[in-house]
Amino acid sequence: MGSLRSASSETQGSTAKGDIMNGKVVIVGSMNQDLTTYAPSLPSPGQTILGSDFIITAGGKGANQAVAATSIGVVDKRRGVHMIGRVGDDDMGIGLVRGLQSRGIKLNDNEVRVVGAHTGVASINVDTTSGQNTIVVAPGANLALGKDDVESSLMEILGCSDGHEKECGRDVVLVQLEIAPETALQTLITSSKLGALTILNPAPAPKGWDLTDEWYSAIDILIPNETELAAICCLSNRDDVTGEGEEAMAKALLEKGVRHAVIVTLGARGAMIVMRDKSQSAPSKNRIDSFRTIMISEPPDLPCKSELVVDTVGAGDAFCGALAAYLSRGIHLEKAASMACGVASMSVRKRGAQESYPRAEDLPGCLRIENVPTGDGVVESKMRTRKTITFVTGNKNKLAEVQRLLSTSSSNDEQLFIPFDIDNHQLDLPELQGSPSDIAREKCQMASLQLKTAVITEDTCLCFHGLNGLPGPYIKWFLDGLGHDGLNKLLQGFDDKTAYAQTIIAFSPGPDKEVRLFEGKTEGWIVPARGSNDFGWDPIFEPTEDEQGSGSRKTYAEMTRDEKNAISHRGRAFHKFREYLLSDSENIFNAIV
Q: Which residues take part in binding ITP (predicted)?
């Protein structure tokens, strides 16, 4: 009954010690023929428009994810990427199977074809202006894949019956919902029993379908997009959901029993991971305060970031397939998700789905697995062995930015992730007076005592040289009372319009332990406001660095995020903190409460 050839014999008796962490990737899902039309806009109901181009390509969420997983060359070739699915006994089906096999994906072309059913077809319309798309799928033979089929195939691929079980690594099984829901559920249940890491991408969520307890108990990682998340949580209008609402819904799914993490894909914004706290990896304790949230984006040094988005078709599949591949090599979840975001980002710069996925030779250094620290391939083990540092803030955007800063190299070297997790907690600490360093140290001590854990606090000053350092740490109140124009007027009558911006990061590994300070400073000028007003006093501060005069220089508010972080006081402070965490991680780990 198995639809795939067994690959277990390929590795039996030949597993080297260094290969133990390498698992197989099994994709269970759809294989479709994609019929894609490109047009300058998407038609409204009842409207007919002329397209500018048309292509016929291989697709289907399952096949797309299998191609993404194998193309980047991450999965151990002896373990392989395996595909379980069905096509019709027609020319389209024959072509799809041969195409997958030509890429090295393992499947049995004799058992995969279904007599009397047409191969699945997806009709895709792409807006060439925005890159957005609409898709209608006629599943055809995909729905012929049954529960018994996947159970026998998974047993054949993942079963280890000759005493070599411990050498089989952590296999990853990824399934979507372009096949029958009951078949997808059986995939998760069987894979879980066989010890694989199970991932459900609930796309597209069928009408009337609901996640029940038997689903939750078999899902390690759930990966919906924003629309699918709202549908799973029974919200009719996705537009009513805020970022905080998305986080709350993801936590609710963990409360219901998803075993390790919910990853919400956010398009150009990357992804949000909501996962169980390291001490709560088992679903028996589902308190919402035992979960933590991490915002993820592509590596900051990804070369294609400045290129135009051409076509978003298949980007979510690129993320899912790449994530499965990276996890099969023991890379911890946060790092794997960031690299998967990078693969998806590369894919949207080209037309098509499978045709747009990068190959191993195309990957920049930040997406390659060489020298990437690995765990044991098990998400929950990483969660138990990594300790958490709490950033004292209630601002989720600040948390996301700090997580990004701490995972970023200041040079062009490959990205290195700190060996700690960063979460956040809001505290109402009293306003203190004194020097910036004294204020930072005392606030950190107070926060650590209240939270009884390792904490970091951040204090920022804007100091005018002409006013002997004022407003300094009181800049928030000066800005609230005077605004940008008022801050400029403070320097009327002074020839010296220079200033410096300063951030002090204070870190304590626990209550009553030594507080370390990390200072970042940037010299600049106070100028009339230019740029966005979204970030405090950024519009009036123009960094000078070592150059004299303003010329055509930008204010903080006129800079891109990466431009600002490269020279900003905040970026410099967090860079020093990050270097400290990397250089003395073992002692810090042991000191953290």
A: 393-398, 443, 459-460, 535-538, 564, 569-570
Judge whether residue 546 has pLDDT over 50: no
**What distance in Å separates the CA atoms of residue 495 and residue 451, rounded to the nearest whole number?**
46
In the 3-class helix/strand/coil scheme, how is 339-371 assigned residue by residue? HHHHHHHHHCCCCCCHHHCCCHHHCCHHHCCCC
Out of 66-75, 284-293, 498-507, pick the least confident: 284-293
Q: What is the pLDDT of residue 279?
A: 47
Which residue in the list 317, 362, 376, 423 is annotated as catalytic?
317
362 included as an active-site residue = no
Are the C-beta atoms of residues 405 and 575 closer than 8 Å to each other?
yes
Q: How far is 461 from 139, CA to CA, in rounded Å?
A: 59
Taking the C-alpha atoms of residue 358 and residue 56, their distance in angstroms, rounded to an integer, is 19
For 27-56, letters b (16+ CB in 10 Å) and e give bbbbbbbbbbbbbeeeeeeeeeeeeeeeee
Q: Which residues pair with 275 in a beta bridge?
A: 261, 292
Report whether 347 belongs to an annotated binding site: yes
How far, in Å, CA of 171 to CA of 328, rounded? 6
245 annotated as ligand-binding: no
pTM for this model (two decimals)? 0.61
Query: What's the pLDDT tens digit per position in 112-142?
Result: 888 889 999 989 999 988 878 898 989 999 9
* CA 99 – CA 107 distance, rounded (Å): 11
CA 325 to mean position of chain CA atoms: 14
431 belongs to an annotated ligand binding site: yes
pLDDT in tens, 524-537: 999 999 988 777 89
User: d(Cα 436, Cα 521) in Å, to the nearest integer?
Assistant: 12
Q: What tokens does 324 get?
A: 């499965």
Express each pLDDT in 565-586 by its tens digit. 788 898 899 989 988 887 777 7
Provide the CB-side half-sphere exposure for 52 (13 A, CA): 9
Tell me the mean pLDDT in the region 258-271.
92
Q: Please tell me whether residue 83 adopts helix, strand or coil conformation.
A: strand
Report percent pLDDT > 90 for the chain: 47
Q: What is the mean pLDDT of residues 16-39?
A: 80
Q: Identify the residue whose tokens are 């010690």.
A: 17
User: Is 414's pLDDT higher than 70?
Assistant: no
User: Among 565, 535, 541, 571, which Cα is nearest to 554's?
Assistant: 541
Helix axis angle for 61-71 and 315-328, nearest 10°, is 50
Phi/psi of residue 287, each to 5°? -65, 140
pLDDT digits (tens, 9 = 90+) for 337-381: 999 999 999 999 988 788 889 999 889 988 988 646 555 443 433
Q: Residues 437-456: pLDDT tens digits?
A: 898 999 999 999 999 989 99
Q: Which two tokens stand for residue 400?
A: 């996301």
Question: What's the token pair of residue 214?
Answer: 């038997």
Query: How far is Cα 189 from Cα 184, in angstroms, rounded to an integer?
Result: 9
Which secondary structure element, helix H or strand E, spans residue 524, and what is its range? Answer: strand 516-526
Give me 174's structure tokens. Answer: 């990824």
CB contact set of 409 (below 8 Å; sequence gap of 6+): 301, 415, 416
- Asked whether the beta carbons of 153 and 84 are under 8 A apart, the reply is yes
Judge if the upstream peptide bond of residue 204 is cis by omega within 30 degrees of 0: yes
Q: Residue 395, annotated ligand binder?
A: yes
Amino acid identity of residue 12, one-letter, is: Q
